[in-house]
Amino acid sequence: MMPVVRPHLYAPFGGPIVMVQVENEYGTFGADKAYLTALRDGLRDRLGASVLLFSTDSDDAAHVRNSAIPGVFQVVDFFYWGTPRAAMNFTAAWTAQRAGLDITRTPGPHFNAEFYPGWYGTWSEAQGYPWHSKAYVNWIIDSVLIADANASLNFYMGFGGTNFGPWSALPVTTSYDYNAPVNESGQPGRIFNRVRSALSLARRSSVPPPPPPAPVAMTSLGNITLSRVAHVASAVASLTKGAEVLIDGAAPQAMERVNQSYGIIAYTPTWNVSEGDPDAACTLSLDDVARDYVMVFDGVEL
């Protein structure tokens, strides 16, 4: 992948890729500096000495110190979901970032690498898609982007997207709109104009930003009735015919152990019950391999 990325680097080629991330929130659960150093050196070997490398961690100074290594610009991510404005403390976040910069010896601005204008939605949420209020977003922008000339925000997300197929993972919905400035359909979102205005002020430029593009033509599809269904047992039999793999073990294997990274695995276990006691109970143990979602059938769904 690195040979594909390299020609598009801002330095030294003037491309659109300004920074390359070494790790993401690694300091939350690890502190292996040899691992981080190997990642850093591998990226530099493949991308060149001029590439700007960075790592992101939460605004916890201990996490930042776990992750920080020399030569990798250390940034933080933070948000204050439901926190009263009086309790929001950006100073603590920047102090945590500086704890990392003291180790990395890479000067740079205050940088929130993941500013969340919203959040993902889950199927169980009765209130629908969780968005931050406009007042919250406005206050963050005013406090960080405009008031602090040495601060930067990276919007997560800047462009709302869609989780196709099973990529979203349980229990996240198909939509990944995130209340982004540009929404899931490519239209200006509810905070688009506010972000556009703030960026113009933050640039301190007399040149106004270009006008937003014209709206994309859209139509309503109305209600769609689904009339055909496929039962799980028959679908599995049809899709796996001739592709079955025998796994010898007492428990189902994690997807990674059978060299798969996407989709669904159908397991059909076989038990040998005692001839003298055909009604003996059998126990199916999933141990710690069920990372996402499991359906169990014994003639019917259990």
Written account of the structure:
One of its GO terms (molecular function) is hydrolase activity, hydrolyzing O-glycosyl compounds. It is a single chain. The protein is of the alpha/beta class and 302 residues long. It has 8 helices and 9 strands. A 3-stranded parallel β-sheet has the order 1-2-3. A two-stranded parallel ribbon has the order 4-5. Strand 4, helix 6 and strand 5 form a beta-alpha-beta unit. The longest helix has 15 residues, at 33-47. It is globular and about 85 Å long.
Q: Helices and strands in order, then pairings?
A:
Elements: H1 2-5, H2 10-13, E1 20-24, H3 33-47, E2 53-58, H4 61-67, E3 73-77, H5 90-104, E4 110-115, H6 134-146, E5 151-155, E6 161-162, E7 175-176, H7 192-203, H8 232-240, E8 297-298, E9 300-301
Parallel strand pairs: 1-2, 2-3, 4-5
Antiparallel strand pairs: 6-7, 8-9
Helix pairs in contact: 4-5, 6-7
Q: Give the total of beta strands.
A: 9
Average of per-residue pLDDT values: 82
Which segments are poorly predicted (pLDDT under 50) over 5 or more consecutive residues?
Answer: none
Portion in helices:
25-40%
Q: Looking at CATH, which topology of the largest domain would you report? A: TIM Barrel
The biggest beta sheet is recorded as:
3 strands, parallel
Distance between the termini: 44 Å
Read across the widest sheet, the strand sequence of neighbours is 1-2-3
For the record, what is the CATH homologous superfamily label of the largest domain? Glycosidases
Number of helices: 8
Q: Report the principal-axis shape.
A: globular
Report the portion of residues in β strands. Answer: 5-15%
Radius of gyration: 25 Å
Q: How do the SSEs run, as a string of H and E?
A: HHEHEHEHEHEEEHHEE
Oligomeric description of these chains: single chain
CATH architecture label name of the largest domain: Alpha-Beta Barrel
CATH top level label of the largest domain: Alpha Beta
The total number of structural domains is: 2
Family: Belongs to the glycosyl hydrolase 35 family.
Keywords: Glycosidase, Hydrolase
Pfam families: Glyco_hydro_35 (PF01301)
Protein name: Glycoside hydrolase 35 catalytic domain-containing protein
